[in-house]
Amino acid sequence: MLDQFRGVSLVAATIAMGLAAGLYYAYACSVMLGLGKADDRTFVEGMQKINVAILNGWFFLTFAGALLLTAVAAVLHFRGDGGRAAFAWIVAALVLYVVVLIVTMGFNVPLNDRLEAAGDPARIADLAAVRENFEAAWVRWNIVRTLACTAAFGCLTWALVLYGRSGS
């Protein structure tokens, strides 16, 4: 029974991590590139609306689920022959995802909050300055979390391979 929980937790963690990595990647290779070509008002208004829209249950399920499911998988794989080979890779994924959380909460969210505090784009006197104080830093930190989350996804994928090879 424990082996089933190990396998299910690892698959669920890998799926959640893959969804999170895909989200950050989509921002890096499409959303921010598209908004980067827009005028200042469209950029600021677009990001403000995106930052409100993303705060939904599906996002939180993935955002928190990647952390919680990976932690559960680590605990379940800590002991026992069936999960031991995968344990180090699960822990590596967990550490990498903690980096994602630190970057998100320490850099991207405060930038989002400052952008929102700038107010209604129709009333902002210097949209170019608001954008300049946001865009490059936000994109840079998003790339950091994209790389860390993708690496975490890779670690969990490899952990699945090792778990499968262990015959569990």
TrEMBL record:
Q: Where are the transmembrane segments?
A: 7-27, 57-78, 85-107, 143-163
Q: Which InterPro entries match?
A: Anthrone_oxy (IPR013901)
The organism sits in which domain of life?
Bacteria
Q: Which UniProt keywords apply?
A: Membrane, Transmembrane, Transmembrane helix
Q: Which Pfam families match?
A: Anthrone_oxy
Protein name in the entry: DUF1772 domain-containing protein
Q: Give coiled-coil spans as residue ranges.
A: none
